[in-house]
Amino acid sequence: MSNCPCGSGLIYAECCEPVISGSAPARTALALMRSRYSAYVKGAFDHLVASCVGGEEGVDREATKRWALESEWLGLEIVSTDKGGPDDDKGSVEFIATYIQGGLKDRHHERAGFVKKDGAWLYEEGEVVPETITRAAPKVGRNDPCPCGSGKKYKACHGR
After folding, report:
1. Distance between CA atoms of residues 51 and 35, nearest Å
2. What tens digit of pLDDT does each residue of 97-151 get?
3. Burial class (CB in 10 A: 0-12, 13-18, 19+), 118
4. What is the pLDDT of residues 37-85, one digit of tens each?
5. Which residue, 27, 25, 33, is CA-closest to 6?
6. I need a surface site. Which of 12, 31, 44, 130 has the fewest CB within 10 A?
7. Residue 30: helix, strand or coil by DSSP?
8. Dihedrals phi, psi of 127, to nearest 5 degrees
9. Spatial distance between the Cα atoms of 53 and 117, rounded to a whole number of angstroms
10. Of 67, 74, 80, which Cα lies nearest the Cα of 29?
11. Phi, psi (5° rounding) for residue 159?
């Protein structure tokens, strides 16, 4: 028995697997969000399509499949939730999915909107949350010594 990829701390068979297989509905928007992340990890593309408003028309299946298969999924962080409980009809989940693709580690930060239709939670839309990248080291000035150790000024060495 393995832990669920969604990071809930539960085993997969008791967490996301029943939602992905269709044997149990997602009771909340958060549960659907977690199952969708696990579906990316497990390659359960039918669940990704079925859990979207519009089904096949609402998803670029090939692009989704390519992103899922070309990525090594590292974890899911839930930032916040708003509504989306068992008695709600709408809800949102802000999350960060961390993955490696093409040898580069990246983060997908999104505010996902969910809607309940006929008693089933569906992913409606998502808004990518922009992340500001800050410089880890101070900027090298043109007339500063080149950090490569050549003894030349940066502008005459690697600053060209």
Report:
1. 9
2. 999 999 999 999 999 999 999 999 999 999 999 887 777 777 888 899 988 889 9
3. exposed
4. 999 999 999 999 999 998 888 788 899 999 999 999 999 999 999 999 9
5. 33
6. 130
7. helix
8. -125, 120
9. 9
10. 80
11. -85, 0
| Distance of alpha carbon 55 from alpha carbon 46, whole angstroms | 9
Distance, CA of 132 to CA of 91 (rounded, Å):
26
Annotate 67-121 with DSSP letters as a single string.
HHHTEEEEEEEEEEEEE-STT-SEEEEEEEEEEEETTEEEEEEEEEEEEEETTEE
Apex CA 95: angle with CA 103 and CA 38, to 5°? 65
> And the tokens for 26?
């997602």
CA–CA distance, 124 with 90 (Å, rounded to integer): 10
CA distance linking residue 98 with residue 74, whole number of Å = 5
* pLDDT, tens only, 7-30: 999 999 999 999 999 999 999 999
Tell me what pLDDT residue 117 has.
Answer: 95
